[in-house]
TrEMBL record:
NCBIfam families in the cross-refs: PRK02406.1
Protein name as it appears in the record: DNA polymerase IV
Lineage, broadest ranks: Bacteria, Bacillati, Bacillota, Clostridia, Eubacteriales
Function: Poorly processive, error-prone DNA polymerase involved in untargeted mutagenesis. Copies undamaged DNA at stalled replication forks, which arise in vivo from mismatched or misaligned primer ends. These misaligned primers can be extended by PolIV. Exhibits no 3'-5' exonuclease (proofreading) activity. May be involved in translesional synthesis, in conjunction with the beta clamp from PolIII.
Subunit comment: Monomer.
Cellular location(s): Cytoplasm
Gene Ontology biological process terms in this record: DNA repair; DNA-templated DNA replication; error-prone translesion synthesis; SOS response
GO cellular component, as recorded: cytosol
Length: 374
């Protein structure tokens, strides 16, 4: 298999785990209430409103066709017995803490991606010659016993490959991908499965004859960068298995932005439905900022229309942004000012210009600073 030359690359010394909780929000509610564990269950932004957006669903509901991005009304038409629960941020933070506490018992080299997933560098625990499956099984058992939820574990020689395979055998799966197995097991899969390859990129690649991950891995670097720029190059290296970025223990001050976005199960036309989705994103960004102990001073929204075109609007804020209400108020204002009337298939919110809270700034109301402009 062809290798991309990188003079600074170092061979991995141990396995990388990507641990991802299965249907995390739903799993937290199921762990709290035994009466709903065997029932179809969904978490939605506004359970009492038929236009509330479903954030996640348990696997019983997924087998019945319930998907993230559906509105509650459509989901209940599909599954009348569906249990719909409102999100509980404090509950998710508590379960996330329990989950990450167990991760820290296996290694101190942990890079969290979100409340429910993280990379674990196991180099200090085992080498690539050791069988990682018993360790992963032990971790799964410990999480199940102590936290009451399940995790799937992807294991490989680098971060991106580990994340790539953690979805292959959900729920409660353990998937190991060795470097010499990439050609047989990874390359035949469709290119849209590659982590970071969105629908618009996958569609453009298909028009160029790039349909599988292997097709992408064998593309000439110049051809990929010509059509897709640096993002395409990153995807091409990822497809070839070339990712040796280390597992980094994050420091809050290193972050440049915090964002959340959701792709819907179907096109959203109604403005109020778009705002509900933006509100869900605002809540997730708020939770993340709070967990980091940071505030932000610039906000952007993102949306994707049916033609796969991505649009953004951004603005600065007089006051520190951290609360869900403050973020949503600014994001919803940007959305209304956009005048967008076409159906959308994705919405997202991000907050940047991050820093620690300042007591002095508490005197200001959150709002738009017209002098800074978008």
């Amino acid at each position: 298999m062809a290798r991309h030359f990188d003079p600074f690359r170092q061979a991995p010394s141990g396995w990388i785990f990507h641990c991802d909780a299965d249907a995390f929000y739903a799993a937290c509610h199921m762990a709290e209430d035994a009466t709903v564990r065997q029932r179809p269950l969904a978490v939605a932004g506004d359970p009492k409103n038929r236009h509330g957006i479903i954030v996640t669903a348990n696997y019983v509901a997924r087998r019945l066709g319930i998907r993230t991005g559906m509105n509650v009304g459509a989901a209940r038409e599909l599954c009348p017995q569906l249990v719909v629960i409102e999100p509980d941020k404090s509950l998710y933070r508590r379960y996330s803490q329990g989950l990450h506490n167990i991760f820290s018992q296996y290694t101190h080299q942990i890079e969290p991606l979100s409340l429910d997933e993280a990379w674990l560098d196991m180099s200090g625990v085992m080498t690539l010659k050791d069988d990682p499956v018993p360790v992963a099984k032990g971790l799964q058992t410990q999480v199940g016993a102590a936290v009451g939820i399940s995790v799937s574990v992807g294991i490989s020689v680098n971060k991106m490959l580990a994340k790539q395979v953690s979805d292959w055998n959900k729920p409660e799966g353990i998937t190991v991908l060795r470097y010499n197995e990439i050609a047989d097991r990874l390359w035949p899969r469709p290119v849209f499965e590659l982590f970071g390859c969105g629908p618009a990129t996958a569609e453009k690649m298909a028009r160029l004859g790039i349909e599988t991950i292997g097709d992408l891995a064998h593309q000439r670097v110049g051809n990929i960068t010509h059509h897709f720029g640096q993002h395409g190059l990153a995807l091409r290296l990822r497809a070839a298995g070339d990712d040796y970025t280390p597992v980094i223990i994050p420091r809050p001050e290193d972050r440049r932005s915090v964002s959340a976005e959701h792709t819907t199960a179907y096109d959203i036309v109604r403005g109020e439905d778009v705002l509900r989705l933006i509100g869900q994103c605002a809540g997730e960004v708020s939770d993340h900022l709070e967990s980091l102990g940071l505030v932000g001073y610039k906000l952007a929204i993102k949306w994707r229309t049916r033609d796969f075109a991505t649009h953004t609007r951004q603005t600065a804020s007089y006051g520190a942004l951290q609360s869900r209400d403050g973020i949503f108020r600014l994001a919803s204002r940007l959305w209304r000012e956009s005048g967008e009337k076409r159906p959308i298939m994705l919405a997202g919110v991000s907050v940047s210009r991050l820093g620690p809270p300042s007591q002095q700034l508490h005197f200001w109301n959150e709002g738009i600073d017209p002098s800074l402009g978008p």
